Amino acid sequence: MLKIAVLSDIHGNYPALQKCLDYAINLGIDTFIFLGDYVGELAYPQKTMDILYSVKKQYKCFFVRGNKEDYWINYEKEPTGWKEYDSTTGCLYYTYQNLTENDLQFFKSLSIKEELTFGSLLPITICHGSPRKISEKLLPDNENTYFIMENNSTDYILCGHTHRQGKIVHNEKIVLNAGSVGVPLHSNGKAQFMILCGLQGSWDYEFVSLEYDIENVIADLHSSGLSRKAPYWCKVSENLLRTGKLSHRAVLERAMTLCKDKFGECNWPNVPEECWEQAVKELIYGHLP
Question: Which Gene3D superfamilies match (predicted)?
Fold first, then answer.
């Protein structure tokens, strides 16, 4: 039986990444698929990249690009709009400042999808969001998802991006979402990945959730200085790591609504810290104004 570890949305959580890799390697797995969003959100991104480069040297690996990789590539072309000590873009700026030229060249080398074949097993498509668009979500009970599945060249699609593990079946085609290694939603704080199992021409799968040292990851936010450079973004990160609830997007959208209510308009990335503060108070701490 062929076993492949499928990992997505690491977002710089190197302890969670190492935990998932160790688990897979201890099972004898020597083939890995990585579905993008390797860094961003969390501290010390180079530690994550060093682990990925090491795995790439030692094992058979396949990588695709996530939307975060596009952020770094595009910012290199046009470095405007991001700044330190800003909850909206401080984390993006911090991560970019800690990437190397080698990292950027690696990201540029990745495609947004690959079609893979392993022996006599059914071919699979790997992508971050969808095979069409890097930031497109493949959601259950969704006509757009069904359309993409029907028009995809393979019967199996492996994806991430939503940070939720799951399976979608439509007309004998299957989407498998590996979840998120680094900042998963609704995982009770556990790191997530997937093991793909190939036998007798077909695929089976196992969703894996693992406990790891979350408090160490949170301590890194402070020791790295990231919690000062993106204060309320990091408060959302802490809450998400511990509880698996409330995405950054949800808090950002609330902060932008508060900004618009107060100032008449709100255009990303110009979201005042006072609006972030109020959004965090409401959504995380439950303190209404």
Answer: 3.60.21.10
Domain range list for the chain? 2-210
pTM: 0.96
Q: Using the predicted structure, report yes or no on whether residue 207 has a pLDDT greater than 90.
A: yes
Residue 148 sits at φ, ψ, to 5 deg, of: -65, -45
- In contact, 211 and 50? CB cutoff 8 Å: no
Query: Tokens 């000062």, residue?
Result: 228
Q: What's the residue count for the chain?
A: 289
Is residue 242 within 8 Å of 189, Cβ to Cβ? Answer: yes
pLDDT score, position 200: 84
Q: Looking at the predicted structure, is the pLDDT value of residue 287 above 70? A: no
Residue 233 has pLDDT above 90, yes or no: yes
Rounded distance between C-alpha atoms, residue 11 and residue 56, angstroms: 18
Residue 258 is classified by DSSP as H
Domain 2-210 sits in CATH 3.60.21.10: yes
